[in-house]
Amino acid sequence: MASALVSIFHFMLVWHYSYQVFQYKLLEPSLRPFRPSQWAAEWKFLTFWSLILQLVYFSWCVISDLIAASAEGSSIAKAATRFRDWLLAAAVFPIGTLVVTTFWLIYAIDRELIFPEKMDRFFPAWLNHALHTFVLPLLLLEMFLDKHKYPSRTSGMLGTISFGLAYLIWLMYLGFAQNIWVYPFLEVLEGPYFVLFFAVTTTFVLLLYYIGEKVNNLLGGGKGSESRHSPMQKID
Question: Model's pTM, two decimal places?
Fold first, then answer.
């Protein structure tokens, strides 16, 4: 019964994040005045990258659950579980947590820098919280309900750095090649401060990886192998 509830939870979150993508696309015309450019649309923003990451992750959880149900203990089931746990550790948790913490930190300092008050007229409060608040509690609930085994730190942190580097290259391409500065303050940062900003951000993301590992262990997970039980296995 417990594992069945976990599978239902995964399916519900696939619907949850799919609906967010749908609603986000519906708001596209209203969001245009608040963007530095329409080129690449929502794909310029880390929030949207995080949203797609959550959707991909929980979709893979559903696939992993189905594989475990039909081929429990098989090599393909173990591989699916290992990839699921690696994806959570390397990208889903650190990037999702980064979006939540940085959004609300900047919002507290000056909301006009991140979510102007004018957006309240058309951007639903529930969607804002779904994108920038509920991500973290849902990930913690996922860690609690379905036990995960973190990969080695070398493998996990390399994944985190690779994802961060991919987004950094994307930002640099937009800024220097397309003259689109997604986050305007980056345009005015001079060389040393520009490098310092990304060094601090990278350090913070790696810290979030470490925090994710510790929180996962605290909630009953572990490190170095598959989950304690297959997602569809019954627990008496």
Answer: 0.89
